[in-house]
Amino acid sequence: MPFMMTKHWIHAGLALLLLAACSRETAPHISDARIVLPPPGMQMAAAYMELHNGSHQHLTIGNISCPAFSMVEVHETRVVDGMSRMREVENLSIPPGGSVKLVPGGMHLMLMGYRKDPSQFKNLPITIDLIAEDGTESIVEVSAPVLSSASDG
Known about the structure:
The chain is mainly beta. Helix content is 14%, strand content 50%.
């Protein structure tokens, strides 16, 4: 009898641990970040990455900054009437438990207006403010490697 009771308690404990692991929120984070520099003479670069939302709420991107650039915006490239066009994305939301990829030829970060020559750095920090549906904010930062345009990001 004691063995059977112990076995049931072990199963109950394992079930609770599994439930806790499945329902736990994780902090938002960034993976696969990189900054790709343009050919010489241009004052803008692009950044690519994957943004992960481990929470139970939609997260919206707020302010974005990188110390080597005066302005950072989310942009999207689309083909319209056979021509590639880029436009600013004003409200990018990351679904609960989901992720958003910023990739060449799609959504990406445009880093504009050099404050410092980014080619002088191996890595640069990118800081992104994320705003949850309940109004709470979290800040994620990543150190992104700086690549030449020849490496094609």
